[in-house]
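Exercise 7. Given the encoded structure of a 238-residue chain, write a plausible sequence.
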């Protein structure tokens, strides 16, 4: 499979700078404010963590991303997975191109989120390969255009799902952009007590860790998070 070739040709923003090594900064951990409600606090925290992420320079962002993706690509969790859901990184998100290259080398099947009206505001996942055609969705995010119904799968059919995030905490709570797409497509995971599939791993930088993220009833916690410091597995209550 040559997913990297299609991704590089369609998503120029993911190209690695030729000189990506730079002096690292000390990661800044976000702290809880004095917001009067969880909703207000989450908004405050989202803005703070987005600022921390965006303050990373391009060279530093790529250096840390390559470290994080190397940790994940070498992990047992990644190597055991056959069908992997992966997002297309945009803006200041942790770049995913290193993982696309790693997945190609390990002959994985890669699936990317797509927004389809029939899925009622949730996400489905379309397989991408060298012959895939790409298009921008309503948010301007590239997504593969499936050519057959068998190319589209719900999240429950994946072995591993790598999620973007704005922030995370030590308990595995995830703070996204606020639209709730991933929570809706993973709602079934909240009702499973022993069998967790797909495995949910957040891809982030250390500076995106918060002391506490208030959990909402519909939130689906992460099983693990990977940053430039390594892979951290969260112990979930049964």
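Solution.
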């Amino acid at each position: 499979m040559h997913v990297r070739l299609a991704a590089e040709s369609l998503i120029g923003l993911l190209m690695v700078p030729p000189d990506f090594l730079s002096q690292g900064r000390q990661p800044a951990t976000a702290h809880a404010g004095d917001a009067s409600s969880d909703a207000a606090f989450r908004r405050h925290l989202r803005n703070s963590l987005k600022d921390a992420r965006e303050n990373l320079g391009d060279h530093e962002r790529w250096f840390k991303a390559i470290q994080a993706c190397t940790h994940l690509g070498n992990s047992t969790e990644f190597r055991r997975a056959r069908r992997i859901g992966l997002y297309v990184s945009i803006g200041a998100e942790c770049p995913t191109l290193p993982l696309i290259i790693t997945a190609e080398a390990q002959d994985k099947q890669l699936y990317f989120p797509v927004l389809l009206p029939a899925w009622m505001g949730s996400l489905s996942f379309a397989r991408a390969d060298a012959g895939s055609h790409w298009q921008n969705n309503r948010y301007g995010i590239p997504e593969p255009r499936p050519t057959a119904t068998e190319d589209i799968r719900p999240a429950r059919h994946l072995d591993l799902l790598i999620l973007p995030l704005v922030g995370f905490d030590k308990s595995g709570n995830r703070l996204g952009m606020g639209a709730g797409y991933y929570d809706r497509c993973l709602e079934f995971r909240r009702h499973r007590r022993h069998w967790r599939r797909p495995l949910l791993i957040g891809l982030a930088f250390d500076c995106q860790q918060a002391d506490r993220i208030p959990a909402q009833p519909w939130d689906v916690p992460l099983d693990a998070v990977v940053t430039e410091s390594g892979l951290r597995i969260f112990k979930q209550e049964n």
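Remark. Residues 38-54 form the longest helix (17 residues). Students should compare their own answers with the one above.
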